[in-house]
Amino acid sequence: MNRPIAKGWCPSALHPMQSGDGLLMRVKPKYGMLNSKQLLVLADCSDKFGNGLLDITSRTNVQIRGINEKNYSNLILKLQTEELVSDSDKLDRLNIIVPPFIQKNSLLWRCASQIYSGVEMLPFLPDKFGFCIDYHDSRYLSDELGDLFIEVVSGSKLMLRCAGMKEAFYTNENNLINDIKKIIEWYLEIQNVQKNERAMRMRDVVEQNNFPWETIKKIKEPFSQKITVGRYQSKFILAAPFGQLKSEHLRKLAAANKKVQFTINKMLIVESLPDTNLGLINEPQDNRLKMNVCPGAPHCSSATIKTRNLAESLAHQEEFIIGTNVHISGCSKGCASPNSKEICIVGNEGRFDIVEKGYAWDKPAVKCSTQTSVLEHLKETRS
Ligand code: SF4
User: Fold this and answer.
1) For ligand 1, is residue 305 a contact (CB within 6 Å)?
2) What is the CATH classification number for the domain harbouring 33?
3) Alpha carbons 148 and 159: distance in angstroms, whole number
4) Which residue lies with its CA nearest to atom 5 of ligand 1?
């Protein structure tokens, strides 16, 4: 079966989206970083204008959930006053992901700074378009996270690479914005995208068209870097269970840290752990790390099951969950993972469809009417 087409758009701060629990708006921390003051502002805004729940997105952004429409303009005003949100439409839809542990003023950091400050010189970007800034030989960011990759080679050289291409071309700090502009203009022109029309992703464009510039063909095969929760030298990586944060998490993090980096895999890099029990994942063995779970009911209006309730119950079933990758999806759109999983449990008119080794939109092998029957079925077939 083909993947159902997702409706709607990528929400941002200036373009919130209606969801099952109210409006949803996305704050995009620059360099993925929030300082302690900003963490507290977000926590207070979430409690005052939303429902106290926030999400970390796969592209390292933070979403405030459950916003009452009447509160939205006050919320925006507060976030703009605190410089967490811009009034520029181009900056509002700009997506930049940097690698974990980025150092301030490093070459990677300076590349991100150039795009933040040069965005007004670039064409109006599609809302899903994303820049990834990473090391070339030792990559943290996978191709599905972005469209245009700015990669540092051998410590000091810069390359530009379109998602889906193995080849790239050299650029440098002086020419970076002009070279980016050139590629984006080609990408938009070739598919004739008008403002606010849905654009193709870069990987599809380069697959269907000849890239017009000469590229370096022989590039060293990159090594994929992985991160998981635990101690990393003087820092700690934590994960939000299924990507969900509560305002109290932000307050506890702010009390112990001058800044926090929101990073890939819905994880956070912190300098210190709070003294009290934080409620975030800090053990790499935690079963919840093996699960892709969308917000589900009541947070998404397309969902007919409470995905996170089921996920928490499954996470405690040591005997059959060990080593198993699970996707729990409120409906067959499968937002939480575009990849095939050993088990997908998919909401369908309040029932739980189970797909074995496949995608959320595949034909289910079994249909269960209750959460208990899902657990019983998995116990029988997998223990
Ligand atoms: S997969 Fe989940 S988040 Fe996506 S539309 Fe369906 S219920 Fe909503």
Assistant:
1) no
2) 3.90.480.10
3) 10
4) 302
For residue 294, being part of any structural domain is answered with yes
Residue nearest to atom 6 of ligand 1 (CA): 331
Residues 56-100 pLDDT 10s? 999 999 999 999 999 999 999 999 999 999 999 999 999 999 999
Same domain, 259 and 328: no
Question: Ligand 1 within 6 A of 333 CB?
Answer: yes
Q: Which atom of ligand 1 is nearest to the CA of 347?
A: 7
For atom 3 of ligand 1, the residue with the nearest CA is 294
The structure tokens listed for 33 are 């970083």
203 and 119 in a common domain: yes
CATH code for position 303 = 3.30.413.10
Distance 364 CA to ligand 1 centre (A): 17
Domain endpoint, select from 215, 238, 270: 270
In a domain, 281, yes or no: no
Distance from the alpha carbon of residue 46 to the mean position of ligand 1, in angstroms: 22
Listed residue (72, 93, 118) closest to 196, CA to CA: 93
List % helix, strand, coil for the chain (3-state, nearest 5).
Answer: 30, 25, 45
Q: Indicate whether 205 belongs to any domain.
A: yes
Answer yes or no: are the C-beta atoms of 294 and 328 closer than 8 Å: yes
Dihedral Cα 212, 217, 220, 225, nearest 10 deg:
30
Q: Considering the entire predicted model, what is its pTM?
A: 0.91
288 pocket-lining for ligand 1 (C-beta < 6 Å): no
pLDDT in tens, 128-165: 999 999 999 899 999 999 999 999 998 789 999 999 99
What domain range is 135 assigned to? 101-223
